[in-house]
Automatic annotation (TrEMBL):
PANTHER family referenced in this protein's UniProt entry, alphabetically: METAL TRANSPORT SYSTEM ATP-BINDING PROTEIN TM_0124-RELATED, ZINC IMPORT ATP-BINDING PROTEIN ZNUC
Alphabetized Pfam families for the sequence: ABC_tran (PF00005)
Molecular function terms, GO-annotated: ATP binding
Protein name: ATP-binding cassette domain-containing protein
Keyword Ion transport annotated: yes
Taxonomy of the source species: Bacteria, Pseudomonadati, Pseudomonadota, Alphaproteobacteria, Hyphomicrobiales
Record keywords, A-Z: ATP-binding, Cell membrane, Ion transport, Membrane, Nucleotide-binding, Translocase, Transport, Zinc, Zinc transport
Family the entry assigns: Belongs to the ABC transporter superfamily.
Source organism, top-level taxon: Bacteria
Presence of keyword Amino-acid biosynthesis: no
Ranges where the ABC transporter domain occurs: 22-247
Length: 297
């Protein structure tokens, strides 16, 4: 039977003696695409010529030194900052969960976790409870935001971002104020959320050696895209080494083996198929995309 790669029709009933044909998967479009993105403020380009895309189920991590334009790029992609150049394409009606880089809660504000979760939307009890459980903080429901530890605070923000079952999760430095062990478990939680929700994730991080184990595509930014690709290919690129030094590159190499197993939330380690290194993340023309405001939570 001749099959078109674009077809999404159900397969015919299998002929006797022939193996059943699996239904063809529909073409999966990117959730979010930036093409030639540039943001200019105060007479200078903060970022320029940025191409990136996030597909469903993919973790894309933006790394780069302080002031390299990571948050600016994220804000431009989400429509929070207006780009001066290039194009942002978001899947129509895209549901986004966003944890911004800066979110300070005044110590005098009597804001508890439950109210924080419901601050900007109606959230049914079931969804609120599920989100807090998924991020491991159901016991903090009545706690005051201002009294949470760094790790607890970040978990609540994550719960708030996933409560609406987003298709895309955007996390701008989600492990701020978290100790080393807490960072590792937060990144494992993020990878676990990706597996459970099947959402795409755009992550901004400084924690190269930890985050790399969970990342599909790394984009190394320094006002422009210096290099991009799988963690392994980026670690070997001269641009990356010159930005982060050989020590940073060496730290990535240490984590190559992590791709052969996964950590479950109950502590078990299970084998996963070896990923044979992602291809470079070249933006390609995408049909069915509309430039419109996303539904950012
Ligand atoms: N609205 C603005 N007007 C002028 N300059 C800005 C504006 N927003 C950001 N910048 C500058 O743009 C540069 C990039 O900032 P951005 O916050 O995107 O960097 P970053 O890579 O996220 O940094 P960090 O790792 O320190 O969080 C910085 O020099 C910052 O001061």
């Amino acid at each position: 039977m001749r099959r078109s790669s674009l077809s999404t029709r159900a397969p015919r009933a299998p002929a006797r003696g022939r193996p059943e044909e699996l239904p063809l998967r529909p073409i999966v479009d990117a959730l979010l695409t930036g093409r030639g993105l540039g943001v200019r403020r105060g007479g200078r380009w903060l970022v320029r010529h940025v191409d990136l895309r996030v597909a469903p189920g993919e973790i894309v991590t933006l790394i780069g030194p302080n002031g390299s334009g990571k948050s600016t790029t994220v804000k431009a992609l989400l429509g929070i900052e207006r780009p001066d150049e290039g194009q942002v394409l978001r899947r129509a009606g895209l549901n986004v969960g966003y944890v911004p880089q800066k979110l300070a809660v005044d110590a005098t504000l009597p804001l508890d976790v439950e109210r924080m979760m419901r601050l900007t939307r109606r959230l049914p009890e079931r969804d609120l409870r599920a989100a807090l459980e998924e991020t491991g903080v159901p016991h903090l429901r009545k706690a005051r935001m201002a009294e949470l530890s760094g790790g607890e605070f970040q978990r609540v923000l994550l719960a708030r971002a996933i409560a609406g079952r987003p298709e895309l999760l955007v996390l701008d430095e989600p492990v701020q104020g978290v100790d080393h062990a807490g960072e590792i478990s937060l990144y494992e939680l993020i990878a676990d959320i990706r597996r459970r929700l099947g959402c795409g994730i755009l992550l901004v991080s400084h924690d190269l050696h930890i985050v790399m184990a969970q990342t599909d595509t790394v984009i190394c930014l320094n006002g422009h895209v210096c290099c991009q690709g799988s963690p392994q290919s980026v670690a070997q690129s001269p641009e990356y080494v010159s930005l982060f030094g050989a020590r940073g590159a060496g730290a990535l190499a240490l984590y190559r083996h992590d791709h052969d197993h996964a950590h479950l939330s109950d502590g078990r380690v299970v084998p996963v198929p070896h990923e044979a290194g992602c291809a470079h993340h070249a933006p390609a023309p995408l049909p069915h995309l509309h430039a419109e405001e996303p539904h950012v939570r």
